[in-house]
Amino acid sequence: MSSTPAIPPSLLATTPEELVPMLAEWNEKPFRAKQIMEWVYRKRTETFEEMSSLSKPLQAALAERFSLRTMKYARVEGSEDTTRKYLFKLHDGRFIETVLIPASMGLLGGRSDRRTLCVSSQVGCAYDCKFCASGLAGFTRNLTAGEIVEQVVQVEKLAGVRVDNLVFMGMGEPMANYTNVTKAITILNAQWGMNIGARHMTVSTSGLAPQIKKLADFPLQVRIAISLHGASDPVRDRIMPVNRKYPLAELFEALEYWNEKKKQYITFEFILIKDVNDSREQANLLGEVAARLNAKVNLIPYNTVEGLPWVRPSEKVQKLFRDTVASYDVMATLRTEKGHDIAAACGQLRLKQETADGIIDSAIPEQRKTIAAGV
Ligand SMILES: C[S@@+](CC[C@H](N)C(=O)[O-])C[C@H]1O[C@@H](n2cnc3c(N)ncnc32)[C@H](O)[C@@H]1O
Ligand code: SF4
């Protein structure tokens, strides 16, 4: 592959505090930082020349130092009433997906206006979970904080909506890109920035225990979702290699720390895969640990990934599993909405595009098929 073209760092990854010393260098007053943020986040200006309250030399200095948009909208799948999956081309030619999940029926029967955006945190993923499209072509690179923030800015404009909820459930493992993800969260939460409440942001992780503890110490009250998918080490080892590094005992210990620090419930994500993790025994183990850690459980029928032979269990098995977990006095939901399925399968659209562009080889590694076949 050709080397990455250099572009100036994104202004969307910059805080007003970081701007102040640069402004001093340019003989500008500190209050300009606030003005610049207003152009960026309130008026959503896409060029520096439009920042008409700033002097021409300051516009030029900013343009030399920063980029305002670093990725190009490539295409969208889905329509206004359904989940929309946006594909963006990054400055180095790679692709990422961002999924907008529309307003759903409110809990009390009325229509809720909430819109959830599922953002990517990396190009590809190194964690190699055996059921997931995101890791199929391996890991390419971390997204910068600017690229994470820009997904929200661009989708709001393209869809003409305001995002209320944000989930880090797109491509990549957010806790393996800790610094950029927490910086993006800070900017997305800031009043001068995207002003999204921290409690409306959920970081989903495959279980990187040390980073979970670190995030527990992070001052913003973000939520955490754990991709559990196995309630015992042998089952989890089979489908999630990360479990060999951080086995369940270590993961649960980190979650106890989370509970102590954050005092808010955890969510366990549990994909139901036929004959892999859908047994009564797994449901009992999951119920026990969810009750102990005060976690709610989201059960997700496996969403087929092209090239991978895993399948979801029958509805009867899914419901029995949910009822068994719920019998531990645990809140357990079975996700059936299409939107979530599409979000969960994040990574497939990008795989198709990068394969078509000849950036990656599409072959599903033989090893995946063997593991799926249970050999
Ligand atoms: C793509 S991951 C990204 C966040 C993080 N790396 C993680 O594993 O939690 C987001 C969620 O999608 C789930 N997922 C991946 N492939 C899926 C599939 N084929 N069907 C349903 N959910 C899937 C993951 O297990 C995880 O719970
Ligand atoms: S489920 Fe998450 S950690 Fe596992 S391969 Fe997919 S993106 Fe990576």
TrEMBL record:
It is found in: Cytoplasm. Transmembrane segments: none annotated. It catalyses: adenosine(37) in tRNA + 2 reduced [2Fe-2S]-[ferredoxin] + 2 S-adenosyl-L-methionine = 2-methyladenosine(37) in tRNA + 5'-deoxyadenosine + L-methionine + 2 oxidized [2Fe-2S]-[ferredoxin] + S-adenosyl-L-homocysteine; adenosine(2503) in 23S rRNA + 2 reduced [2Fe-2S]-[ferredoxin] + 2 S-adenosyl-L-methionine = 2-methyladenosine(2503) in 23S rRNA + 5'-deoxyadenosine + L-methionine + 2 oxidized [2Fe-2S]-[ferredoxin] + S-adenosyl-L-homocysteine. InterPro entries: Aldolase_TIM (IPR013785), Elp3/MiaA/NifB-like_rSAM (IPR006638), Methyltransferase_A (IPR040072), RlmN_N (IPR048641), RNA_MTrfase_RlmN (IPR027492), rRNA_lsu_MTrfase_RlmN/Cfr (IPR004383), rSAM (IPR007197), rSAM_sf (IPR058240). Binds 1 [4Fe-4S] cluster. The cluster is coordinated with 3 cysteines and an exchangeable S-adenosyl-L-methionine. Its cofactor is [4Fe-4S] cluster. SMART domains: Elp3. The active site is at residues 97, 346. It is an enzyme of class 2 (transferase). Keywords: 4Fe-4S, Cytoplasm, Disulfide bond, Iron, Iron-sulfur, Metal-binding, Methyltransferase, rRNA processing, S-adenosyl-L-methionine, Transferase, tRNA processing. GO terms for molecular function: 4 iron, 4 sulfur cluster binding; metal ion binding; rRNA (adenine(2503)-C2-)-methyltransferase activity; rRNA binding; tRNA (adenine(37)-C2)-methyltransferase activity; tRNA binding. GO terms for cellular component: cytoplasm. PANTHER family: 23S RRNA METHYLTRANSFERASE, RADICAL SAM CORE DOMAIN-CONTAINING PROTEIN. NCBIfam families: rRNA_mod_RlmN (TIGR00048). HAMAP family: RNA_methyltr_RlmN (MF_01849). This is Probable dual-specificity RNA methyltransferase RlmN. It comes from Roseimicrobium gellanilyticum.
